[in-house]
Amino acid sequence: MPKVTFPRMGESYRCFKMLMNDLGNEVIIPPRPNKKTLDHGVRHSPEFACLPLKILTGTYIETCQMGAEIIVTSGGSGPCRAGLYGQLHQKILKSIGFPVDIIVFEAPKSHPIDFIRKVNRLNAGRLSYRAVWECIKRGWEKLKYLDDAEKMTHVARPREVNRGETTRVYREVLEWIDSAYTFKEIREAGEAALDTIRAVPQDSARQILKVGIVGEIYVLLEPASNLEMEETLGNLGVEVHRSMFLTGWTRDNTVKETSEHLSVKDAARPYIPLCIGGHGQETVGHTILYSKEGYDGVVQMAPFTCIPEIVARTILTRVSREHSIPVMTFFLDEQTGKAGMSTRVEAFVDLMRRKKALFKSSGARLMVN
Amino acid sequence: MAARVGIPSSLFYYVHFPMWQTFFSELGIEVVVSGQTTKNLLDAGVKEALADACVPVKLFFGHVISLKDKVDYLFVPRMVCLNRKTIYCPKFLGLPDMIRHGLSGLPPLIDVQMDNREGFAAQWKAYLQIGSIFGLGRLKILRAYIKATGSARRFKSLLLEGLSPPEAMDVLFKGGSASPAVKKRSGLVFAVLGYPYEVHDPFISVGLVNKLQKMGITVITMENLSPGKLSRANILEKKMFWTFSDIALNAAYHLFKAGTVDGIIHLTAFGCGPDSMVDKLMEISSKDYPETPFMSVTIDEHTGDAGISTRLEAFVDMVKRKKEARERLCQR
Question: In Å, how far is B53's CA from the nearest CA of chain A?
């Protein structure tokens, strides 16, 4: 059986693991990015490459050392750098003595034949197309529950009575979803997981702030790369709404754009009229929508030197002023420390809280709508 | 009084200025350029632009600031795709937006989108749109456009003859002499690869090209190489999708393979997104061609003159020594 691995993005690896196993591959689970991963990555990646590239290089090296033969990843048509990751990683890995195969999936919309050819390559168990489709559907179901569970923790965490309980319960229920296999099992485990998170004791009287999180997809989706920003905010009594989940992103990029995505683009149009690659346009659009929905603030996260997010950040200054919503930006790289980040987040939360209290006492309304 | 249009002398200036200059002057519009980069310009840009942006973008902010009170319109077109294959860096796609929302007190911005993938004669339509901003007739705009494309063609052929963009502009507009033959073809030949707005801006590149020429080295840049040759040199499975990066990388591949230059210097700006990939790919490729030495020089707003000189001298000395040693070996 070929040994297959893939990039790690949050908890989504649980779904890909099942999918790859079903297709008849042996899966090497990519380890959670840690200090060692980053050390490998920084050593072999270009200096100014963005953090995701460095983390992925590190992850690939670690998995190659564990015996991976094939790496599966996604491509893109630019103008963001991520579209060339696969090609560059292949060259880097070859130059340091890991001649692995990297299978880069391009968008099936524009490269349908290429897509099918690559599915065939991964289909080591020679399943029929129908069976492959079944596997993908089951994986998708699992992914949806994983995303829903994570969304639920964002609401539950700031209101929890016993600090840290949501996170603990979340870790536990992930394993339930992970071990489910058939459609029925996945659904049962998923519903049970959501119920369990909902049942975490909550303090309904607590003053809760609402913050939207925008930015580049990888640092949003992989908690290890953003130093658990959502957890940090949640523990400070902030309900987080993340603008991006893997299921949503996949929907927008494989079949057709959802109405939600289109409204984001519409909102961004006065500021950025066309897609500038990555998630620059979405960052601006989501910030405007968050402001309209009455959120207290927005946190933007992007890797250092990320091109689209730099453009977005320049524009966000004006957006923040015109839509009166506080925006805080974190450019993350391998030097970012958790303590420094927590301090900044705490100060930001304090400011938002004070602003809210001030508006309340003066009778003014913060809500735009 | 004729309307005045300001064109910042940065970024696309080194590639498209002749075309724009001809176009506007044929329409009877006065063109104002911000001129040579100075320390003050850069400082003004650094102050206004986002700290994480790359130097060329900060510099562009500086050029815009110096122009904004002198002109009626600012010309910052949104360049998306000109060759129907590759697009420009995301920062260029969002450049008009960054300028508009990052600076205040600006004159009206002409940010016409130029995307040749949009269909037949998309470029003409873009220029027609520019002309109609000034309320001019179709015929007049067409005449100016035809002259402008002619000027762009002449500019390109001058570059292929071995002139640098500023020299070629001199020939086109100031009647300088087209005499690349004057350049000494003896001694070492170096290729300085990098984006035109870095290589040909003597301030931001800390006079890298001049320094090399003073050491008696002939410098060629990626504009001097024929596009056909470059596109054949591509060995990447997937096309580099940024126009300038595609040219720079292919130039490196071409020169490595041909072995016609004695050294390749890659000039890159700190924090440049595309270059982080390009530079690594060049570096990996350079290991396959040990006979062509390769160096990459990173510049930012703090780059000191002395530091660059030292590195260049060391590099040149090593290349010279290597070449002499090889010649001696051949004689024996």
Answer: 6
Boundary of a domain, candidates A65, A95, A127: A127
Number of Cα atoms under 13 Å in the Cβ half of residue B158: 24
Alpha-carbon span B116 to A45, nearest angstrom: 34
Q: Is the ipTM of this complex over 0.85?
A: no
User: Do A41 and A179 belong to one domain?
Assistant: no
A92 at B interface, C-beta within 8 A: yes
**How far off is chain B from A180, nearest CA to CA, in Å?**
39
How far does A309 lie from chain B, in Å, by closest CA?
9
Helical spans, DSSP H, in chain A: 13-22, 35-44, 51-65, 85-95, 112-122, 129-156, 165-179, 183-198, 217-221, 229-235, 246-254, 259-268, 280-292, 307-322, 338-361
- Chain B CB contacts of A314 under 8 Å are 49-50, 53, 94, 97-98, 101-102
Q: Which two tokens stand for residue B63?
A: 């050029």
What is the model's pLDDT at position B38?
Answer: 87
Residue A368 has pLDDT above 50, yes or no: no
CB contacts of B242 in chain A (<8 Å) are: 78-79
Start-end of CATH 3.40.50.11900 domains in chain B: 183-331
Using CA of residue B84, residue B86, residue B92, residue B93, what is the dihedral sign? positive
The pLDDT of residue B130: 87
Average pLDDT of chain A is 87
Q: Average the pLDDT over B238-266 and give the result.
A: 87
Q: From the list A49, A79, A315, which residue is nearest B90 (CB)? A: A79
Q: What are phi and psi of B331, to 5 degrees?
A: -65, -40
Assess whether A244 and A359 both reside in one domain: yes
pLDDT in tens, A169-196: 999 999 999 999 999 999 999 999 999 9
Q: Report whether CATH 3.40.50.11890 matches the domain B4-160.
A: yes
Q: Do B98 and A311 touch (CB under 8 A)?
A: yes
